[in-house]
Each structure stands twice: as C-alpha cells, then as structure tokens.
Specification:
Mean pLDDT: 91
CATH class of one domain: Alpha Beta
Radius of gyration: 23 Å
CATH topology of one domain: Rossmann fold
CATH superfamily of one domain: Response regulator
Helix content: 40-55%
Largest sheet: 7 strands, mixed
Strand content: 15-25%
Low-confidence stretches: 6-25
Number of strands: 15
Distance between the termini: 57 Å
CATH architecture of one domain: 3-Layer(aba) Sandwich
Structural class: alpha/beta
C-alpha cells in the first residue's frame, strides 16, 4: 500500500513538473541572434548582441509583450560563414526557436533567406521568421524578396542615394575613388554609386574601383598608396568591421587627405582607428548618431544612449557605443507586431509587421508591405571636434563626435521595387 501511495505521489510530482516546463517556455519568446562572435568580426557581432539584449531588457522591464511574455536573445556564432550560419539556423530551429535575426554579411543573409524559405515550404505549420538588421544588398527586398524576411536597415541604393546627393552639392569634388570588400555587397556598392554619380554629377571622374578580400587584408597601405596616387578628393567605401578599421588607420598613418564617405565609419572601432585624422574628413550615412538628441532636442534619447553605456561599461580606456539605431526601431516594431498579432505565430507576426508605421524620435518609419523594406530618415554626418554645445558627445573617447550635414526624410528615401511578394 505504501509503495502504491508513493508511486501516486511521484506520478503527481512528475505531472506538475511536466506542466511547469511548457508554461515557462511559453512565457519566453526566443530570438536567435546568428552573427560572428569570434574571429576578425567577433567584436562587431558581440556589440550587436549587446544592442539586442539592451532592447530586450527595456521591453521586458516595461511588461514585455502579449500580456507579460519576455524576449530572450539567444546567441549563435556563425564565424561570418554562410555555411556555418546554416548549421546554426538548424540548431536554433531544433531548439524550438522560430524568430531569427542577423546582419553581418550579405552572403550570410542570402543563405539564410533561402534556408528559411525552404524550411517554411516544407513546414507550413511551423514557420520561421527572419529579421535582417544590417545586410543591405538590394536584391533581398527586390527580385529575391520573401514574405519571411524583413529588412530594418536601409539598403545599398538608399544609402548611396543619400551619399551621392551630398557629393552632388560639392562642386569642388572632381575625382572619386571606390574601395569595397570583394563579395556581393561590395560589388553592389560599387555599381550603384557609379550609376548615381554618372546621373547626378557626370563631370566627376571615378579614378579607382578596387575590391579586396573580406576580412583577410592585414595591411591596407598598398591600397592607400593607390588612392593617393589617383588624386582623389573623396573615397567612397562600404567596408565594415576590421576592414573599415584597418583601412582608415592606414589612411591616417599615410597622411591621406581625401575625405571618406562611409556606410560604417561610426561602426565599432572605426572612430578610434582613424583617430584625430578623421576630423572634418570621415563621413557616414546612418539612421542615427549619438548627437542627434541635441540637434533635435530629444533629451529622452540622450538618457537611452547613456543607459547603454552604463549597462555595458568596459573600462576606463574603452567605451562601448550604442550605434545601431535601427536595432532599437526593429525591436520596438517587433514588439508592437506581437501585440497586434495577439500571439507568437511567425506568420501572424509577419502580417502584423507589413505596412506598419512607427514614430521614432527623428521621424516616422514605414515597413513597406510591398517588399518588407523599412524606410526611415537618413543622415549624412561628419566627425568633428566634440565638446561644444552643438556636438556634446564624442565617440570611443576620441574627442571627436558626429555632426549632421544633411537629413533625408523618409518619403524621399523611398524607391520603386520589382518585388513580387508571394504570401502564404
């Protein structure tokens, strides 16, 4: 009798534990973060993960989504490899994760889009949704567009349009040199800026169009020598991560006087890499920078920025900067989409995101339903001496900060699309 009673008690305990498991899991919405966490771009991936975690913490602290569910960011190291990314995607799916984000490397993004599409075709009742925060090859929201993919960064053509608009206003610029990483993204950058400058400033001469291996060049001085010899007044580059840092560092050491128009001049390590030589010469095109709050009187954004620094303080001689304004926008919009959908079904969340308009501190953003491309205000800014009333914050303790040269409104950034969206 005692043994029988014991068995009943143990069975009851087991049932309670079994029941508790799903409840705990259901209260957490996991997002797989698939980006480099080791290797030459590991610092970039680590910084991105911290951006996502900061936003998840803020949303969770404000009650989460769907009446109390919390976001959990689950990191997966892809070593900036498309092949490894597919392995990590499978690992995430095997763990029951149905929301994925990634940004570093268009070759990786292309592989993930294809893999997610295949998975969802085979498993229509158990789909995966992919949030792209930084891979900007235009095709991903053009001829390769997918219902299961949303891009929260401005793509190459949008960014190059802003850069070329600014160059157009400068009659003194006669020679431009192009240098990019040798993969689909870099070639897209080169072709796009050449077409735009030809249309807007046919008098400008492209005096160099160079590609180099992704993440493998240790010494950029030979490339800088070519730029110097070309007589270029302006360099346009889409380089990111270590390649951005080493490029601008070599330019500094060689005394190159040309200005740099960059996608990622403000990316982690790049400001400190160029140092004092970047003053009044390194420019970037972004959706956000750390002095916008002052220029447009948004003190709450200042508190947000300083809160990130406080949470991720790394030492007296280093400082982790909040850089990805679009990650903030993405997480806020994704949270709204969950609440609008009323559940955590990826298909319902996707439909909730389509066409969503969202107010940021610096203007309205729109997730266009036609192609799942986010349109948002863009800013051209220049590294200048910080510490003044106009430029209160520097970056990476360089003594230099970002000052806005030009704003491009959301409606102006919108471009036609050839996307033919197929919806489930």
């Amino acid at each position: 009798m005692k043994n029988k009673q014991l068995c009943v008690i143990l069975a009851g305990i087991a049932m309670l534990l079994f029941a508790a498991g799903p409840v705990t899991a259901a209260d957490t919405i996991k997002i797989a973060y698939i980006d480099p966490l080791t290797g030459p771009f590991g610092n970039v991936g680590d910084a991105g993960q911290k951006h996502f975690q900061y936003m998840a913490d803020l949303i969770n602290g404000n009650g989460g989504v769907l009446g109390g569910k919390k976001f959990e960011i689950v990191p997966f190291d892809n070593k900036i490899s498309a092949k490894e990314s597919l392995v990590q995607l499978k690992n995430a799916i095997d763990q029951g994760i149905r929301f994925v984000t990634q940004g570093n490397g268009s070759s990786v993004a292309g592989a993930l889009i294809e893999a997610v599409n295949k998975h969802n075709k085979r498993n229509p009742k158990d789909p995966v949704l992919y949030f792209n925060y930084a891979a900007v090859t235009p095709a991903f929201t053009e001829e390769k567009c997918s219902f299961w993919h949303f891009r929260f960064d401005a793509h190459v053509a949008i960014k190059m349009d802003a850069i070329s608009e600014h160059i157009k206003t400068r009659p003194e610029v006669k020679k431009v040199y192009l240098i990019h990483q040798d993969y689909i993204f870099g070639h897209s950058c080169s072709a796009t800026i050449q077409d735009m400058l030809k249309a807007k400033r046919p008098d400008i001469e492209i005096v160099g169009d160079t590609f180099h291996p992704l993440g493998k060049v240790k010494d950029f001085s030979p490339y800088i020598s070519k730029i110097q010899a070309s007589g270029a007044q302006v360099v346009v580059t889409g380089n990111w991560g270590q390649d951005m840092q080493l490029l601008v560092k070599a330019a500094k050491e060689a005394g190159l006087t040309a200005e740099f128009y960059t996608f990622y001049g403000g990316g982690l390590g790049s400001p400190s890499g160029v140092g004092a030589a970047g003053e009044n010469r390194v420019k970037q095109v972004t959706e956000w920078h750390n002095n916008l709050w002052n220029e447009q009187n948004k003190p709450a954004d200042k508190d947000f920025y300083l809160g990130f620094q406080k949470q991720y303080a790394v030492g007296n001689n280093e400082r982790l900067e909040f850089y990805y304004g679009r990650i903030r926008t993405m997480m806020e919009m994704v949270a709204k989409a969950f609440d609008k959908a009323g559940n955590a079904n990826p298909k319902d969340v996707a439909y909730a995101l389509e066409g969503m308009e969202h107010d940021t501190y610096y203007g309205k953003v729109i997730m266009r339903a036609d192609d799942h491309q986010l349109y948002q205000p863009m800013f051209i800014s220049t590294m200048v001496k910080a510490g003044s009333d106009k430029v209160p914050f520097d970056v990476e303790k360089t003594g230099l900060g970002w000052r806005t040269d030009m704003k491009v409104d959301t409606e102006t950034t919108m471009r036609p699309t050839v996307c033919e969206m197929k919806r489930p």
